[in-house]
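Appendix B, example 12.
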Amino acid sequence: MTRIVHIMVGGPAAEIPDLAQFNHENITWAGVDSGSKRLLQMGIIPDIALGDFDSLTKAELNEVKEKVTDVREFPAEKDETDTELGLSWAMALNPSIIRIFGATGGRIDHLLANLMMLTKPAFRAAIPLVELIDKHNYMRMYLPGNYFVVKQPDKKYVAFTTMADVTGLTLSGFKYPLINAGYPVGSALSSNEFLGESGEFSFKTGLILYIESND
């Protein structure tokens, strides 16, 4: 059976999408730090809560401990971020999909840490599995290869951001196509659009952050 893991972290509540389309009985939920409190507020009891919980009050942490069977506390001074702890736990379950919510918006340092997380060698195996989702954006990281992507129903724009030097980038099925192009790290090929309901892209070397967005 396909195993899907959802991770809720502590980004602004205003950026959380409607979870009804993502929540069903076969989902394994992890609450990271204040994300555990948010899940409880939404009526979702996570399978695990983990992090340093420095953003929770003592009373809020006690409530998490009362309602969540598996609570794992870590020191605030540590090498990994709380989101990285959640991702490492999720990877150990050998899932087919990992969706992360609450990883964007709010503090810029947290946003950058969550985006750069998948560029670390320790999480290379997670790249094909992870989707980062908020109310306005759908994000995935891609390793070199050939990919067929289907347009998200509520999204208009597509962006390809190079997280490492990229060579051989080809886009088809998009308003602005490319053939065998190269871009250095940090290039943001934004405001592209699907011509229809799907598109294809490929590249030979590098790493790409793929984003579908709406206004």
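The domain at 4-135 is CATH 3.40.50.10240 (Rossmann fold). The CA atoms of residues 59 and 215 lie 38 Å apart.
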